[in-house]
Amino acid sequence: MALIDAVLNKVFLLIWLGVVAFSAQAQKFALSEGDITFFSEAALENIKAENKSITSVFDASTGEIAFAVPNNQFQFEKKLMQQHFNEKYMESEKYPRSTFSGKLYGFDPSYSGQQQVKAVGKMFIHGVTQSVEIPGVIEVGSQGIVVKSTFTIKLADYKIKIPQILWQNIAEQVEVTVNLAYKPL
Amino acid sequence: MKIFSKQLISVIDQSKTQNQKGKIERNSKPDSTINKDTKHERKLSRSILSLIFILTATLLSAQDDLLKELTDEPVESETIATFKGSRVINLQSVETRPKGTLEFIFSHRFGRINEGAYTLWGLDDAYVRLGLEYGITDRLGAGIGRNSVDKSFDAYARYKLLAQHPGKMPVTVTALGTINYRSSPKKGEGIVPVTTRDRISFVGQLLIARKFTPGLSLQVNPLIVHRNTVNQQYENNDDVALGFAGRQKISRSIAFTAEYLIRLTSNENNPPAYERYNAIGFGIDIETGGHVFQLVFTNSLGLIERAVVAETNGNFWDGDIHFGFNITRTFQLSGKK
Questions:
Q1: What is the ipTM for the molecules in this complex?
Q2: Topology of domain B101-332, CATH
Q3: What are the beta bridge partners of residue B55?
Q4: How far is B328 from B290, CA to CA, in rounded Å?
Q5: Residues 99-118, chain A, touching B (beta carbon < 8 A)
Q6: pTM for this one?
Q7: What are phi and psi of B91, to 5 degrees?
Q8: Topology given in CATH for the domain delimited by A27-184
């Protein structure tokens, strides 16, 4: 019995070491350069903003991907618009970040070159979490991995309301473009 | 990784205790074999259960952990939009215009409400200030204006010394200096000859504000007004006052505002022509895109600090109230990347 005990304990320890080792060998990539832009096309005014303060992690072994965007770092051409974006629409003091976390499907890390993938996961904007599927392109190169995606966001899905008086200035849905370049961690 | 190592340690601890227990069991007088086996099975199943539990937890938390790595640090940001406009009601606010932004300010005060129906509760009379303010940098601004009361011209510069920053700076502090020239009475038309020097006055003020919640902002501002020439029998060349102002948003685009100005150097028992009161104001801010509309009720007719501090001759509580508005329109003159 003592022998079995000892063996069992060893086995558990080994399994544990295995789990730890597995997580350590997970192929994580950190963002080296990234930006997220959005474009709103409305009757009176086209609004564009760019954010280079995006942060992201990508785990190539599992396909898991996450990114976070500080809302107050979206740069608008008109400063007043930027203030309204943060104060009235995104409520950046309450919800400082917008995030996405999920998994890339259709990604083969061994294949180099462009691959069409689909990101499935949760988008968090303005205090609202939505399950989303986003199409994208991933390219594995010698320097790292590049992920690109363009998708639309309906403001109403995230409880972002447009005042009646500004409906000609602000579109009901905006086009978001994400460019992420990763390097191995 | 931290979580993993913690889990690992706890498992090692667990296995150690299991070992010790085993030893104790082996050393102690043996129970019946069946009993021993049950104990062992229980121990085994517990270990397996905990293993399964922790494995599941690890897998489940993996995705969130990835996001957690990214959102540990708080987002850095200076507080924005403590007040909507560059004015609260009559008083200036701590706000500076962003770089390259030109703001046109059109302010308007009607006559006194208690004048009654004959003047349509003051609406027959209108006093106007037209003003422009430009953001030289995000923190430095300059403005000019002309008020029909006393046909006064004003020019000012403001600089944001400190900006409220969560965790770093509790308040926003802006310094503001104004020079003022009254062109009334016309040269040669006064009762006594008036020189250019007589027409000039200065105002210096410090504006200290804090945005307590996204909806509530409060401001206190000490100011000093120097008038080169006054009737020294009833007036002071230098007047010191303390202004208080607040804003409470009631919706995304609408806010209530209030302000009160306490004169710290006032002369009592003046004849009616020189009776002065503390300026009081209540208002509603309505914002639509590039415009801010401020509808106000105040006992001050003048729209520049000199007049608001030292020349407010209406008694709010007697109904000497002027309805009015400030309308600002913002233009972005130069793009900023």
A1: 0.72
A2: Porin (2.40.160)
A3: none
A4: 8
A5: 99, 101-103
A6: 0.76
A7: -85, 155
A8: Lipocalin (2.40.128)
